[in-house]
């Protein structure tokens, strides 16, 4: 997605601009007339036939819900939403999220009708085609103008929408001043029956209610059908009562198929509600309305077939011989939308200009935020190596030493934790919680929407998914920092993946990252999780070995504007290596930690297991007369980016020196860089950290002894004898 | 966990045994006396001091909630639960799940007091110690007598409990007959504030309400504290109203700290409720009750320190000089529990015996189920190679061909889908849905508790977590088969992991497993997910290449009694290779698919990408004059189990033949078996399957050409020149 930009100030306002101008669309809704009703009926029929045609051409797609939601689409794109089709990135636009992303053809169709330039009819026809230039993929993708977030995996979108609404609340509280509602957009989110079943959605719903995000409106396409058939097959709860219990206002529309006026009225009521709560608009629709399989699951995920498409068109009063028909009346109907958009942009530009005169400093800071730039030079804030304690330090503590001053000074950062404040060290002096201002002051709970510390509760998945929304509001405006135990980033993984797929910058602070985490046992000891994140495209997984490397991890994360970073940290204290460790080395993924001429072996040390490499090196020298060099290898992806010459020089594998990686994880993936591994091949064990290491053979004498045997074999049989067959040196398998 | 066994029939019953005998504990509760109240007070004080001592000795653990839940513990283990401490695996025992697993010391303590043989005071003292023989790990583990499931990652336990309750409902509906309530146990589950925030718990709660599991009682330790402090920081919803909206009955206890009688009354009411719903018992407690930081988050996850522990003891009327004190009165108080257990076992044995006389066939089948044995020889049900169509077949269809007859005939199998019935082909003829019998017959929705087809809704995580409960009810009695798109096993991953950690057999049918899934796009195309499951201990991740290999995958999965299996399947049609593919080969993980003497290169084909290997081989021969052999490699873990001689023979890497793996996944992990890979290094793209393959360079001529270049280099420079540096041959990186 291109960098958002505020429109240039085309018409400087002579005096203060009131927010009243934003309300013009309300009057349109109120003036909804009989004529409109007739035209909208044509629009509905047109949209449904078009969707049926588009799915039919390549025999696939999801037509049913898209047809059922036609009237909701008219209400949103014609009457209710505030946006500018010709400037999809207008900063104060309403955000729209299609959580039921498989119905994307519906969104593409309305984007075409209201005049998003790139969304031509020709493009609509590329849906499900083999065209690689298509901007109509099977699920909405953030790279497309007018799409706020990529959706598809159910439940993610509604969580993203919570993040988008939070971003508005936060920016509004930070920058709006009396008479200047600079940030005042509404977030709209469409969900289907399925989204409301997913855990991540339920977590996000709880949080939106807790934070009283009254700028968030979730529209429920209640067609009571999922792939398997009736929703009753798997869900018979009282959705409205559940939403109300979660702190939401609930509105209902009985006829969502055709009654555009009722939908508009409900959506306008939702936006203007004074309940101070997010609003859930439950709209009853019929899947595949207009077809003979209306209300049936068969209308969900397949084309109708030529006969039924012909029938749909005939029933709708269209000639079944013709396809992709959009009458001029339909285009005319939406023709005023562009103008409304220009007016919105213009009004906002005037408002921003006037704000600039009244609130000079805030305005220039706001301008930087809009541009997606940091408001301070963070390179000056990251502590220098000499500022770290030389005594053993847990890398989770190092992360606090680096991140706390960043969080204190960079307004871009919103830092939160999935209920592990005492463990993850992310609290900075003077932090204010992101909370509704009237939450529970009587109980000593403080905070307001300007707050940048987020208590996510025990909701790792929503934490990451909502953070994607924060990051997607306008790239660079908010940089979310999440935190939890590394193991629980498995709960968050589907959302971390969506962040990587969308190239959204985020920093995930993942502490307690090895068996060294100790007593909590195998449920809390990640063995295999790094294999996932090292394989995941567009993501940095970094395991720093000490404070200096932790600083490097933050530099990498802050510099990676188009991807999330996981910084993987120890619970336990780690020795510091100021003479060897290097933040610049981290940026190269791997680097020479201790060089050694005439080396017999290269030890690859990683994160909290670096200490075993360093100690084993000494024992190899003193007890076995072997010379070992050490490579620190905090990040495979960063290393992959280096030129071959660098890789060769660091790993020296072409010189016949065998390489052994030492890490208390499954070896999977290290085979690319090492000939042997001292690794884990089972789950962990509940023991104090040091004892857990010992239990699994992580003890320097044992490690050195196994490595010396391996090196002897290499010396005896030649390096080529051991290449092509990765060797597992850890025999303490439980 | 040892295999469960029904007690031998010590006292054959002369006539039909009524279920009345099971109710003796109800009368105990009703007769709760003043004397009991005094003794229970001593018990509460003892338990709290003991927990404070046990955390203090090694300066760690979670004392606060364990102390707050003392009265609940007395109510459960002394008065309400039906179990036999001396036979922890008594088949019809009540199941207890500690979803807030960090409070495990509480459970261990009561297990000690009621007389679980292995849970000695000495063992209690091993909590957080370095003793490797400890059965008191930091979270409860299934391997310990009396622990039903491993818990710790929040939200998992309550989902497991739903599975345990389902298992009871299903077995009861299948085997109970009038007068013979063979399976009649209750499932109890303890949750804290945090569990109720996790998405997986919320999904499971919806399902339990939907299925009206009135044999499930969830006890909410409502202390309103999590790590960060007050629950109000992150959760202000109306928990009771939310549970009621989800179809649960709600009961409350105001004083959960001390009023054992009120708790017993509530729990007895919950069990005897006629609401036909699962019951949520909301019990108000105080974290760290009895200490000076009662009600504070500081009591949550750390020892109190010696001074406060002394104060706790003094306040409780104990001598602060003494530690780990358990007065005889306390042991005496629980001394009747063993007897009740014997009686329960005896009654049940009599009941089973009488049942055997009345219902001969059912009884012998039931006996097999209790033993955890299949009721039929499944090896006779798996279709033979010649029964598969020779025409191109999607492996998801092959999976249906194999699994449908298994599901039809093996009562052990409970097969379900996360709302993808039309896609995953798991429906067999005559399948009955697992549903409450009175669900919605008027809407044509049928099913009852005997049903073995489960509509999970769009809840992948709960599907896997609840399935762990089904599998844990009694190992081998129920074999859950789940299904969804492979990509959504990322949502399910935390529960799949818990299944692997607990060595619970399950089969996960993961369809749409590569970019070949097509139009749904990158959100649905798994690139990196296999890296996780290939690295996960105790789990088989199998990607079959055709129907025969799919049969092999099922044979492997059914044979793997102590681990879950993911069978990874294509959406798209795949060529069949009856002359090459082998189910026995699958069991070895990898095998020679096409041998070739004087081979220039070994191609490793995997799953749906086997066709590229086969075609590339032909092009290499015809266009480049190169001889290629092919290894099919469906499962890395199974291959790892083979002797080195077999590995060498299959891969022939010691003969200087370079190996190239062809798979449309990230290469991570293949470096162990291959010298080069034709792999993915980015996320996928929304295009029809075949076009998506082309877009990413999966086209036989291109593949052959790149491989021939690689082979030429090897011939030119020698095999050793390319070893030690994995080569990525796919240059179509997007």
TrEMBL record, chains A, B:
Query: Can you tell which superkingdom this protein's organism belongs to?
Result: Eukaryota
The chemistry this enzyme catalyses reads: D-sedoheptulose 7-phosphate + D-glyceraldehyde 3-phosphate = aldehydo-D-ribose 5-phosphate + D-xylulose 5-phosphate
Q: What class of enzyme is it?
A: transferase
Keyword flag Transferase: yes
GO MF annotations for this entry? metal ion binding; transketolase activity
Which UniProt keyword terms apply here?
Magnesium, Metal-binding, Thiamine pyrophosphate, Transferase
Record has Cell cycle as a keyword: no
Reported cofactor(s): Mg(2+); Co(2+); thiamine diphosphate
**CDD domains associated with the record:** TPP_PYR_DXS_TK_like, TPP_TK
**Entry EC number(s):** 2.2.1.1
Please give the PROSITE patterns that the UniProt record associates with this protein. TRANSKETOLASE_1, TRANSKETOLASE_2
Gene Ontology cellular-component terms listed = cytosol; nucleus
Span of domain Transketolase-like pyrimidine-binding = 393-576
Taken from the record, one Pfam family name reads Transket_pyr
Per the UniProt entry, what is one GO biological process? pentose-phosphate shunt
* PANTHER family, sorted: TRANSKETOLASE (PTHR43522), TRANSKETOLASE-LIKE PYRIMIDINE-BINDING DOMAIN-CONTAINING PROTEIN-RELATED (PTHR43522:SF6)
What family name appears in the similarity comment?
Belongs to the transketolase family.
Q: What is this protein called?
A: transketolase
| Organism for this UniProt entry | Corynascus novoguineensis
Lineage of origin? Eukaryota, Fungi, Dikarya, Ascomycota, Pezizomycotina
């Amino acid at each position: 997605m291109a960098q958002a930009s505020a429109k240039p100030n085309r018409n400087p306002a002579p005096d203060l601009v009131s927010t009243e101008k934003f309300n013009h669309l309300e009057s349109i809704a109120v003036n909804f007339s009989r004529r409109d009703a007739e035209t909208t009926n044509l629009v509905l029929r047109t949209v449904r036939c078009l969707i049926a045609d588009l799915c039919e051409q390549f025999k696939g797609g999801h037509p049913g819900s898209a047809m059922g939601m036609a009237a909701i689409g008219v209400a949103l794109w014609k009457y209710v939403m505030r946006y500018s089709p010709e400037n999809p990135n207008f900063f104060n636009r309403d955000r729209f999220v299609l959580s039921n992303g498989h119905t994307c053809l519906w969104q593409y169709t309305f984007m075409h009708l209201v005049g998003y330039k790139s969304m031509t009819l020709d493009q609509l026809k590329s849906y499900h085609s083999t065209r690689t230039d298509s901007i109509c993929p099977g699920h909405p993708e953030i790279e497309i103008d007018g799409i706020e977030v990529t959706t598809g995996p159910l439940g993610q979108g509604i969580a993203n929408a919570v993040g988008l609404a939070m971003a508005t609340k936060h920016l509004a509280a930070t920058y709006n001043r009396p008479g200047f509602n600079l940030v005042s957009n509404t977030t709209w989110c469409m969900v289907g029956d399925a989204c409301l079943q997913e855990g991540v959605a339920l977590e996000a719903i709880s949080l939106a209610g807790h934070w009283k995000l009254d700028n968030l409106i979730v529209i429920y396409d209640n067609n009571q059908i999922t792939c398997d058939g009736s929703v009753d097959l798997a869900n018979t709860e009282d959705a409205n009562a559940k939403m109300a219990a979660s702190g939401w206002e609930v509105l209902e529309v009985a006829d969502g198929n055709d009654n555009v006026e009722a939908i508009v009225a409900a959506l306008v009521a939702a936006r203007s509600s004074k309940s101070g709560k997010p609003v859930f608009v439950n709209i009853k629709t019929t899947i595949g309305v207009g077809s003979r399989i209306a209300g049936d699951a068969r209308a969900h995920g397949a084309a109708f077939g030529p006969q039924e498409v012909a029938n749909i068109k005939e029933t709708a009063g269209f000639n079944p011989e013709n396809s992709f028909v959009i009458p001029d009346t339909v285009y005319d109907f939406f023709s005023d939308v562009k103008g409304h958009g220009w007016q919105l942009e213009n009004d906002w530009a005037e408002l921003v200009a006037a704000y600039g005169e009244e609130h000079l400093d805030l305005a220039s800071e706001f301008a930087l935020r809009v541009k997606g730039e940091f408001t301070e030079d963070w390179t000056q804030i990251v502590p220098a190596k000499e500022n770290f304690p030389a005594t053993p330090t847990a890398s989770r503590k190092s992360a606090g030493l680096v991140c706390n001053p960043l969080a204190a000074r960079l307004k871009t950062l919103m830092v939160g934790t999935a209920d592990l404040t005492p463990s993850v060290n992310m609290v900075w002096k003077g932090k204010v919680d992101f909370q509704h201002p009237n939450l529970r002051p009587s109980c000593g709970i403080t905070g307001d929407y300007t707050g940048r510390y987020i208590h996510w509760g025990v909701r790792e998945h929503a934490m990451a998914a909502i953070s994607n929304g924060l990051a997607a509001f306008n790239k660079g405006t908010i940089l979310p920092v999440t935190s939890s135990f590394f193991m629980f980033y498995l709960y968050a993984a589907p959302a971390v993946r969506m962040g990587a797929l969308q190239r959204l910058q985020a920093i995930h602070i993942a502490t307690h990252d090895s068996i060294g985490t100790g007593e909590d046992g195998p449920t809390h000891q990640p063995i295999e999780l790094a294999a996932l994140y090292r394989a995941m495209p567009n993501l940095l997984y970094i395991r720093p070995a000490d404070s200096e490397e932790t600083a490097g991890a933050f530099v990498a994360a802050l510099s990676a504007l188009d991807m999330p970073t996981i910084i993987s940290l120890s619970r336990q204290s780690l020795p510091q290596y100021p003479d060897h460790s290097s933040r610049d080395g981290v940026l190269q993924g791997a680097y020479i930690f201790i060089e050694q001429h005439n080396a017999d072996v290269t030890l690859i040390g990683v994160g909290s297991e670096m200490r075993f490499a360093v100690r084993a090196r000494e024992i190899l020298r003193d007890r076995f007369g072997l010379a070992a060099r050490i490579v620190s290898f905090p990040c495979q992806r960063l290393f992959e980016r280096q030129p071959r010459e660098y890789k060769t020089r660091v790993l020296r594998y072409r010189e016949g020196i065998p390489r052994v990686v030492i890490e208390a994880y499954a070896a999977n993936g290290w085979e690319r860089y090492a000939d042997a591994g001292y690794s884990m091949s089972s789950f962990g064990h509940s023991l104090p950290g040091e004892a857990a290491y010992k239990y699994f053979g992580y003890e320097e004498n044992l490690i050195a002894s196994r490595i010396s045997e391996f090196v002897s074999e290499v010396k005896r049989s030649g390096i080529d004898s051991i290449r092509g067959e990765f060797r597992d040196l850890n025999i303490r398998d439980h």
